Structure formats: structure tokens, C-alpha cells
Hints:
This protein is an alpha+beta fold. It is built from 4 helices and 16 strands. It has helices at residues 44-51, 191-207, 214-231, 237-252, and strands at residues 5-8, 12-16, 27-30, 35-38, 54-57, 67-71, 77-83, 89-91, 100-104, 106-109, 122-126, 131-135, 145-149, 154-159, 162-168, 175-176.
Amino acid sequence: MLPARKYYHENMEININNIQIISNTDVRWYLSSQIIWIGKEKNYDEIEELINKSYGSFKWLWSDSDTILFNKEDLNFIGAVIKLNEPIIVKSGGMDKVLLEEREGNIKISEERNFECNLSDFTEYYIEEDNLLSYSEKWDRANLSIEVKITSDFSVLLQNNEMVGILIYNASNHLLPEVVYQVDANENIDSSLCIKLGRFFELIEKIDNDDLTQHEELELKKAFLEIYEQVLPYNELNYIALKETILNVVDYM
């Protein structure tokens, strides 16, 4: 077998090898809490235990920093807990990837240390491609970045030797209700679900308007419930996640 190819950077080392630490079933998107959970850990207690064995950014209990974990033994990326900033901006058309240089493998830090990291200052959802992009305000999209595909559906974006974002392909397949800890391996994308999901995010953005009249609020509730009725017959996990979240939103209103 050929030796692993390595690309060295000042703060980050990218490994291109056959080792897969994370699988697609470990990439979870909890819609109601808008948390992206990467890795095999099922809850925050398990993350707490993992922190003692890791370097990285894990100040989520005390600050806005995202939790990014690297194994202390080999410095490999092993997981993340990322709270998406809202509103999620809905995009039509394809994502511009002209300035993304693609690699495959895993990432590892080059220094044994902890750091602060925000990968979720902005969030975009691309309906037609079913892609979810979450990124830092530090990311300069006009300059070259590296996309490291850690699984076929999950990538980390690097620029200037720093993590600046994540990209999830087939994102609606990774939607889960809060109590489920693993994504189904089914990779069939239902485009109608993507459209409903985009519509849901557009409605969520309107809720933040403090000047809503009582009539406008009633119309918003009706629009949410229309989506709910459309997805009600489906029992797949991603549909359940959307249904539960809609009911939570309507109750909150």
C-alpha cells in the first residue's frame, strides 16, 4: 500500500490516507436546536468525557465558541458540536466552488494545544443541491480555500491554515429528531423535502420581525401548518424532525 500523502501547513496538517474515523451516519443535523453534531458521541456527557482525551476548541458551556475535538494521541479530528447561527439563508442555484481546492482524508492539528473556533457565524442552505454551508466571518470567499472531504457528505473548509467552515452534502438526509443518535444509511434525496425545508427557513426568518401584526402572525402560523400537513404522511426520520420542529415553532408563536 502506498504511504499516506501529507500536506503540511503552519497550524493545520491535512492527511490524505485510507483511515476513516467518521462515517456519514455520524453526521447529524438536529433541526429543532439547529446543532450540527459530528462524531459517535451521543450526548454532552460523552463529549465532556472526550474533552479530557482531546485538544481543540471546547468552550461551548461558557462561550459562543464551537466545540471542535482532536485526539490527543494522534491529533486527528474526531468530532464537533456546532450551533448554527440563524437565520439560515436560503439559496437557489448551485454553490460557487470555483475557489475550493478539494482533498480527501482527515485533518489534524500540528500543535498540541486548545484554541477558540467559530465555524457558524453564517449559515446557508442550497435547495437544489441540498447543501448546508456554515462558516466563520473570517472566511474570505474571494480567495482560494481547501475543502477536505472527511466523508462523502461532510467537508471541512480551510483557509490560511485555519478551519473556516463546514459543508454538508445531502443535508436533509442528516436531519434527525433530538432523541436519535445515528443517521440512516439511506442516501435517497427527496427534492420535495428540500423545497419544504427551504420554505421553513424562509418563514423562520420572518418570525424575527418585531413589527408583525396579529394578522401577519396568524398567516405565518397557517403557512407553517401547511408545510406540516404536506409532510404529515411521511415517517422517515428527516420528516419527523421537520414535523416536530414545526410544532415547536407554532407552539412558541
